[in-house]
Amino acid sequence: MHSLLPDCLHLRDISATPGPKKSPPLIEKVPMANLMGIEGEKALLAIGFTKQLVSMGHQACGAFELWNYPTFLRDLVVQDINIHDRPDHVLHDAVLNGDRERNIARYNDSRRALLLIPISKWKNLTDDDEVIQALDEMYGHDVEELDLLVGLMAEKKIEGFAISETAFVVFLLMATW
């Protein structure tokens, strides 16, 4: 879900009258990198919880698609529990490796579990030749190895929707459970 994060938090003036689009006026764009770690916690405390929530509620999020990874997370130096930097720890690699270590089902296994038809070739997943080439380089021709998160981001979107068929079915199941 990292692809939903913006690179900046658009802080709004919650004491002002909302403008014509019903959004409070923009005060400042705060880079998300400034809101991370110990210093980020201090900054967030200074901003205040209500202003954070209102500001996030009036800000568009990112899109569920490949290569849409927030810039600030690409350079993020993760810290361990003792607040020591871990420059060897790359977040987006850790997400995929963590999914594999926790035995998160691969894309096709997930589709089968949802009673959806699994893909048999990359063209079933996407019409984007650049994506197909990248998947081929990463996974070869073995569509069964496709990680769930990568598959969800690469999958064709339902016309008129921001999400794919697999994500939509998961959403429906969660919403009706």
TrEMBL record:
One Pfam family linked to the record:
An_peroxidase
Enumerate the Gene3D superfamilies for this protein.
Haem peroxidase domain superfamily, animal type (1.10.640.10)
- Return one GO MF term: metal ion binding
Q: Which UniProt keywords apply?
A: Dioxygenase, Iron, Metal-binding, Oxidoreductase, Plant defense
Instruction: Identify the species of origin.
Output: Carpinus fangiana
Is Lipoprotein there in the keyword field? Answer: no
What is the name of this protein?
Uncharacterized protein
Q: Which GO terms describe its biological process?
A: defense response; fatty acid metabolic process; response to oxidative stress
InterPro entries with a match to the protein in the record: Haem_peroxidase_animal, Haem_peroxidase_sf, Haem_peroxidase_sf_animal, Oxylipin_biosynth_metab
